[in-house]
Structures are given as structure tokens and as C-alpha cells.
Amino acid sequence: MEIFNGRIHLPGSDHPADVTLEIDWIGKVVFIKFTRPEGGFSQWPGLMVQTIGVEEAVFRTRGIPPRFTHWWHLARNSDDALWGLVIAAPDVHGDWQTCPLVLKKFIREV
């Protein structure tokens, strides 16, 4: 399991938030955790759709903030960080809301 941290402003949310992403590339499991709860929750599992080794992943989360579904497309860069785009389903006007992000790898000090 790898851990990444960053700050993002998800489509549909009224504020930016600190986020931790835990990902098991081989097991295709991902968890999103926020330091400030969204809609009463602070952790969501992601439904992994695709991974390309340990370099790229696509998954979706539902209910962050309540009623929103987000698709996450992440890729590892040369600094071992993840960069990508979070896409929310179209709003009532048919506009796709997006959020770019960079998440830095968390390294535990021994």
C-alpha cells in the first residue's frame, strides 16, 4: 500500500481540503481520506476500474460531497508523485466540473 498526500478542491465542494490517498496497485484497492469531513464522512473507498502497473490508475468515488460521483485519473511522475484530474459528472447545465491535483508520496521515516 502506498500513501500520497495533497490539497485539492473537489468539484461540488465549497472549500479546498487536505486529502490522503492510500492505494494498493496490485490488489486494485484505493481509499480517500479527508482531514475535514465532507457530508459527515471523512473516508471513502474507490472503485478501481483500471491500473497500468504501478504507474497509472483510474477509479471512481461516490458521495464526496453528498450526491456527487467523481472519476479520478492519476499517473505517477518522475518525482514518484501522482498527478491527475478529478472529474465530476455533468451538472444541471451539462458542464463537466474538474479538479487538477498533485499528490506527494508519503515516506515514513525510520
Q: How would you describe this protein?
A:
The protein is built from no helices and 8 strands. An 8-stranded antiparallel barrel has the order 1-2-3-4-5-6-7-8. The chain is mainly beta. A hairpin with a 4-residue loop joins strand 2 and strand 3. The two termini are 17 Å apart.
Quick summary of this structure?
With 110 residues, this protein is mainly beta.
How would the blueprint of this fold be written?
Elements: E1 2-8, E2 17-24, E3 29-38, E4 41-52, E5 56-62, E6 69-76, E7 82-88, E8 97-105
List keywords for this structure.
single chain; 110 residues; mainly beta; Lipocalin; 0% helix; globular
Total discrete domains: 1
How much is the radius of gyration in Å?
A: 13 Å
- Total of DSSP H or I helical runs spanning 4+ residues: 0
> Percent helix among the residues?
under 10%
Tell me, what is the CATH class?
Answer: Mainly Beta
User: What distance lies between the first and last C-alpha atoms, to the nearest angstrom?
Assistant: 17 Å
Given the C-alpha coordinates, what overall shape results? globular
Low-confidence stretches: none
Mean of residue pLDDT values: 88
Count of DSSP strands: 8
Describe the largest sheet: 8 strands, antiparallel, barrel
CATH architecture: Beta Barrel
Computed structural class: mainly beta
Strand-residue proportion:
over 45%
Strand order across the largest sheet: 1-2-3-4-5-6-7-8
Using the coordinates shown, work out and report the CATH topology: Lipocalin
**Secondary-structure element order, as H and E?**
EEEEEEEE
